[in-house]
């Protein structure tokens, strides 16, 4: 006689299925909008799903934590859908999401400690384990109250209701992302990407252009185009900055999408700084031209969308002349106007460009100079500048030498 599935096992199966979908939704949001904290939350949640398969103790408490976790994840996704600024969340909300990220890590520690032979169990006494569980529940309760208020909706408690809502949410999210990607997908490059992906059995596409030209933004938007999302059920964006060899790249792709060694990679689309495609690859034709700077009209529109202050037309034109209409440079300079007057920015620009030539950096591009302007902005104090210097040394940080920061 077959063994009857227990209530706890059904709850575990239900919530892991729901969390698997939630991880997919968070990854798609991260790919489309790059909201801070979404990537660590989604990766930690994915690890939790795997850990629960071997949970030996306190299974009811672990399932309770995962059910609470799913409710908050749904609320965070819903916040993006209801955002007034196309998926961008206000700083106060990001603070709450950052605090919730700490709770997710605590939940991961608690669940990992329930495994046989867990190294965490060696360090935690029973009283400390109970304190950790209370901290997890308290963090979930706080996040539930905060996000319930911000979304204006009740976080669902019924598993069946959550299952139905998650399916609807996935559809809403894809429509939301594709809607807010239309502006990016209006040029010939995007049309060529979509046409090539749709028509060729195994295309290889290289999107070229200098730093800050919007290569990553373009390919992410293409992946969420309605035609592409309806043709390909599963689409993955793999950030490969940390891979320096073809073997490392293959391993990184396999890690993200679960491919076994030797499996063919279908329809790869890469973005690469520069103007030459890697050799010895049969790239799909017609070749895409390297991305060009924004038009004057697009640069002005981008500038106005970013800055919080009204900048006179003449001042804006002078500032945009400093950027060469490169998207990243336009964004950086536009943000500077939130804290400095245009006249002060222009004066500081002239001083720093002269200084960089005097100390032997040859001719830095306007993009490099705009990055330097951001780092030397009056709002950047020595503490954050030191932190940025340390972050650049991490494995996924820049792999080029930067001028030394002044502390």
Task: Walk me through what this model shows.
Helix 3 (59-81) packs antiparallel against helix 4 (91-112) and helix 15 packs across helix 16 (366-375). Strands 1-2 form a two-stranded parallel sheet. The model is unreliable at 151-156 and 356-364 (pLDDT under 50). It is globular and about 70 Å long. It is built from 17 helices and 2 strands. With 407 residues, it is mainly alpha-helical. It starts with 6 loop residues before the first helix and ends in a 16-residue tail after the last helix. The protein has 3 domains: 7-177, no CATH class; 184-273, no CATH class; 296-391, no CATH class. This is NB-ARC domain-containing protein.
Topology:
Elements (H helix, E strand, L loop, with lengths): L6 H27 L4 H15 L6 H23 L9 H22 L6 H5 L2 H26 L7 H21 L8 H12 L5 E5 L5 H9 L2 H6 L14 H12 L11 E5 L22 H11 L6 H9 L5 H10 L5 H17 L7 H10 L6 H10 L16
Parallel strand pairs: 1-2
Helix pairs in contact: 1-2, 1-3, 1-7, 2-4, 3-4, 3-6, 3-7, 4-6, 12-14, 13-15, 14-16, 15-16
Number of helices: 17
Mean pLDDT: 75
Structural class: mainly alpha
| Beta-strand percent range | under 5%
Spatially, the strands of the biggest sheet line up as: 1-2
Integer count of domains: 3
Helix content: 55-70%
Write down the secondary-structure element order: HHHHHHHHEHHHEHHHHHH
* Terminal residue distance: 73 Å
Oligomer: single chain
Q: How many strand units? A: 2
Shape: globular
- Rg calc: 24 Å
Largest sheet: 2 strands, parallel
Q: Identify low-pLDDT runs.
A: 151-156, 356-364
């Amino acid at each position: 006689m077959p063994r009857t599935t227990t209530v706890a096992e059904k709850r575990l199966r239900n919530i892991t299925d729901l969390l698997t979908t939630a991880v997919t939704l968070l990854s798609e949001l991260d790919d489309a909008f790059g909201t801070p904290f979404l990537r660590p939350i989604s990766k930690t949640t994915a690890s939790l799903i795997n850990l629960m398969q071997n949970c030996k103790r306190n299974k009811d408490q672990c399932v309770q934590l995962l059910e609470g976790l799913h409710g908050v994840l749904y609320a965070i996704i819903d916040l993006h859908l209801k955002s007034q600024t196309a998926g961008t969340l206000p700083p106060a909300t990001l603070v709450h999401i950052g605090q919730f990220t700490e709770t997710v890590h605590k939940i991961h520690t608690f669940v990992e400690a329930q495994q046989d032979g867990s190294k965490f169990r060696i360090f935690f006494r029973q009283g400390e384990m109970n304190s950790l569980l209370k901290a997890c529940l308290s963090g979930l309760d706080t996040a539930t109250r905060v996000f319930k208020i911000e979304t204006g909706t009740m976080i669902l408690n019924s598993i069946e209701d959550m299952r139905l809502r998650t399916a609807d949410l996935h559809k809403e999210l894809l429509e939301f992302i594709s809607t807010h990607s239309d502006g990016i997908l209006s040029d010939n490059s995007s049309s060529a990407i979509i046409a090539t992906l749709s028509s060729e059995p195994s295309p290889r596409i290289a999107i070229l252009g200098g730093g800050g030209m919007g290569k990553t933004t373009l390919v992410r938007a293409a992946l969420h185009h309605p035609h592409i999302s309806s043709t390909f059920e599963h689409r993955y964006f793999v950030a490969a900055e940390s891979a320096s060899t073809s073997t490392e790249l293959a391993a990184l792709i396999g890690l993200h999408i679960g491919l076994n060694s030797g499996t063919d990679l279908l329809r790869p689309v890469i973005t690469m700084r520069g103007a030459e495609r890697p050799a010895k690859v049969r790239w799909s034709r017609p070749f895409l031209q390297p991305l060009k700077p924004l038009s004057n009209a697009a640069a002005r529109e981008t500038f106005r969308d970013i800055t919080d202050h009204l900048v006179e037309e003449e001042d804006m034109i002078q500032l945009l002349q400093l950027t060469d209409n490169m998207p990243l440079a336009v964004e950086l300079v536009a943000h500077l106007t939130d804290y400095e007057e245009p006249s002060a920015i222009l004066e500081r620009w002239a001083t720093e460009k002269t200084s960089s030539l005097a100390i032997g950096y040859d001719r830095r591009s306007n993009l490099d100079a705009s990055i330097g302007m951001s780092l030397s902005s009056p709002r950047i104090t020595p503490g954050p500048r030191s932190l940025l210097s340390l972050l650049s040394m991490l494995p996924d940080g820049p792999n080029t030498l930067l001028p030394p920061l002044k502390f």
